[in-house]
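Quick one: structure for this chain?
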Amino acid sequence: MIELGLGHAVEVGDVCLAIGNNLGLQGTVTQGIISAVGRFMDNKQPDSSRRTAARSKLRVPLIQTSASINPGSSGGALVDMNGHLIGINTAIVTPSRGNVGLAFAVPANYILPILAAVDANEPSIKRPFIGLTLGQNPWPKKGILVHGVMRDGPAGRAGVLAKDIILKLNNTPTLDSDRFLMMIALQNIGSSVQLKVDRNGQEKMISITIGVWKPAKDKLLVVKDETNPLDGTTLAEMNPGLNGELGLDPQLQGVVVLKVAGGSSAAGLFQTGDRILKIGTSTIKTLEDLTRAVEKNIGKLSAATTLKIRVARGSVVIEFRLSLRPLKSKL
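Got it. Here's what it folds into:
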């Protein structure tokens, strides 16, 4: 039996071994180093100018290694030089199907909540959560900048504020946000962590009780109405989980475009990830707001008119001016 190591405690430059069935060759062992810790693979649309992009549906912080991992290696062991299991080989990024030194493993201790859920016959897996979004602290300043705080989250209740700078987590210096999120992801639910923060030049200690991540149920609206300028779109109310899937700031709220049907009247205008800000003079915060605004502006259209729809696409705000005409009666 192999001893479980601490995947979040490895350091960049540590030597490691990857074990697996590389390309069907059973029991292959390769050597490399830890290239990065707490790596989140990008889930945004790839740049078409690049031959490859790190896209994945994985939502866990990964260990990146230069050890050769190929098809057939998934599920194999990533071990340190003491023989401890530190990761489970999971994915590679490559322009072909072969390894180019960009391999990823799930931290071994990240599976403990899964094992606990299986042992307890629980229907779902509970994940740690504190309710922060993080930004980059300008060089050469140290620490991690708190970009946003969820009002009802554990960190918000504990007193963490936006623009706080996190210096330490449980006496461990916080050098980058990826490692910080990885360390949080491996905490026990209900346990307490101590944050040392810098607030306007004054250091404070804040105790946070780790909460449980509860994904919000997505509220969706599929528009199928040729009189509606949003015809062909699938819309949703934003929440942190959905925002993360779309590569948007988890703090953003409002209505977002999830999908646009090809060939629909909306296909040439809207894109996945667009946030609907205004329809006419109505500000859109919920799907109910949107439905009312559409009804108000086109519900009883009797003459040609121009409708303004304002959307946010990334950091750019776009205003569409659409010419609408009443439908002619069909005999």
